[in-house]
Design goal:
200 residues, mainly alpha, globular
């Protein structure tokens, strides 16, 4: 998988980065850690430049998150409630949780969006409650881009270091992808197994 991603990055260039980062936020096939990390490897090998890569990764991340935000913003709370009531068990949340999150986000939504950009399992998910709470569009985009840019800088620098240190850095990112996937699935299974509705 990581070899394929690296080829998309190398051949597709910065537009490939925008595409992968946007797709990662909408339908996460590959973690952004792998995409931007491999972008850093490409920087180390002279296939890309740091600043254009950072801009492309940040634009892609902002676009992908904005799609989720717009869907939730158009949907609104009223349309969401039947879905939560029916599938809350598998989402491990209740309508009460949605209401509490909505009130908090209406007050501090832009800062919550910014902070969550540094949390691997919640970076994309926060776009949905932010949209449901109707956080301002420009604020959402600005704080999403700011948080994503800082995170992407760290990933690019880490990937560049690996690219300079290890001859087969792409293989390391393959293992990273596998570990992230296993941990995410295990965490979800644990959440479903231990979750109980408030009324119980």
């Amino acid at each position: 998988m990581s070899e394929w991603v690296y080829e998309v990055i190398r051949q597709g260039g910065y537009l490939g980065i925008v595409f992968l980062m946007a797709l990662e936020n909408i339908i996460p096939p590959v973690p952004s850690e792998v995409i931007m990390g491999l972008g850093g490897v490409a920087v180390a090998r002279g296939h890309m430049q740091f600043w254009p890569l950072l801009v492309a990764g940040t634009v892609g991340s902002a676009l992908g998150n904005y799609v989720l935000f717009l869907i939730a913003d158009r949907m609104g709370y009223e349309r969401l409630r039947p879905f939560i009531d029916r599938w809350g068990r598998w989402l491990t949340l209740e309508w009460h949780d949605v209401e509490v999150a909505g009130k908090f986000l209406r007050r501090h939504g832009h800062w919550v969006v910014f902070v969550f950009r540094f949390m691997p399992m919640f970076r994309s998910m926060i776009s949905v409650p932010a949209g449901l709470a109707h956080v301002g569009h420009l604020r959402f985009l600005a704080f999403t881009a700011a948080g994503a840019a800082i995170w992407n800088v760290l990933l690019i620098l880490g990937g560049r270091w690996l690219g300079r240190t290890l001859a087969q850095a792409e293989q390391w990112f393959g293992w990273v992808t596998l570990v992230v996937a296993v941990v995410s699935i295990a965490f979800y299974i644990w959440r479903v197994a231990t979750w109980k509705p408030r009324q119980e």
